[in-house]
Amino acid sequence: MTEHVEHLQDVLQRARDEVGKVIIGHRHVVDQAMIAIFSGQHALVEGVPGVAKTLLVRTLAYVLGCDFGRIQFTPDLMPTDITGTNVFNLQSNAFTLVKGPVFTTFLLADEINRAPAKTQSALLQAMQERKVTIDRTTHDLSENFTVFATQNPIEYEGTYPLPEAQKDRFMLKIRMDYMEKDEELILAKLMLGDDAPESTLGKGHVRPVITKDVLVQLRGSLQSVAVRDELAAYVVDIVRATRTSESILVGAGPRATQSLILACRVHATLAGRDFVSPDDIKAMAVSVLEHRIILRPEHEIEGVSVAEVVGHILQEVSVPR
């Protein structure tokens, strides 16, 4: 195992531990969020209100030494409310750029499906190129720019479905469910004192483990995590199987192949290995593919889930030895 991979594993473990001081339970959610961050990708977070989606992203930003920004998406939100705009300054007799909340490192796009497609599309260039064009002038964003977009899975009234082009730019779909009973009991006891999770950031209880500059360097360490040719072919076979399945109307595109490869590398590192195994691919397949697949209407009516279809594909595609 190379020194770079060992350092990355050490950082990931320490980040896990620090985030765990604030986010009770949800270990797999924290891991998936870090997979998106260290892969340089974006994540779609789905969960009912009150399961700490916002707190998760704010804590990750603090622990990884990055800035945090938040946008509350509403039906009347305009694209310029996200990107910013040029405002005429009477004193200087010139236009001055007033930067929008997109000029940050970790951006929480809260309830992104409450804004119309025109507003949602304001994030497309930022997510793909880490650049923003305002009045025909292009501005660079942080190399670590990461979007975490949240959705409420049960409230669809007054919402707008995300365009397929935008959903495809999210590496993962992270589901945040209710915590276990013993975890909720721990939370209840913490609320009786001064250690409420929301109040611990910035008080010395939780400490940053790296800076934003180190985060850029650590991403390069993933190149040392080995992926055998047979496993790369296994990833391609899984993604291509979504395009021929009888249950699927629209399958996953090539960006899903890229995302699954990248996700597996970080997953292997979190497991303490410097090589990807078939188990890493199976573990990440549903999260990477779920939001990219559209089932045929007849299967949706029967109550078939995308996760079940992906699970069936994993059983059919032969696993390399």
Describe the structure.
This protein is an alpha/beta fold and 321 residues long. Helices cover 43% and strands 16% of the residues. It folds into two domains: 3-222, P-loop containing nucleotide triphosphate hydrolases (Rossmann fold, 3-Layer(aba) Sandwich); 225-321, Orthogonal Bundle (Helicase, Ruva Protein, domain 3). The protein contains 14 helices and eleven strands. The strands form four sheets. Strands 2-5-8-1-9 form a five-stranded parallel β-sheet. Strands 3-4 form a two-stranded antiparallel sheet. Strands 6-7 form a two-stranded antiparallel sheet. The longest helix has 18 residues, at 3-20.
What is the level 1 CATH name of the largest domain? Alpha Beta
- The largest sheet has its strands arranged as 2-5-8-1-9
SSE order: HHEHEHEEEHHEEEHEHHHEHHEHH
Distance, first to last CA: 22 Å
Shape: globular
Which stretches are poorly predicted, pLDDT < 50 over at least 5 residues?
none
SSE-based structural type:
alpha/beta
Residues in β-strands, percent: 15-25%
What is the name of the CATH superfamily of the largest domain?
P-loop containing nucleotide triphosphate hydrolases
Instruction: List how many beta strands DSSP finds.
Output: 11
Percent helix: 40-55%
The assembly state of the depicted protein chains is single chain
Radius of gyration: 20 Å
- Here the CATH topology of the largest domain equals Rossmann fold
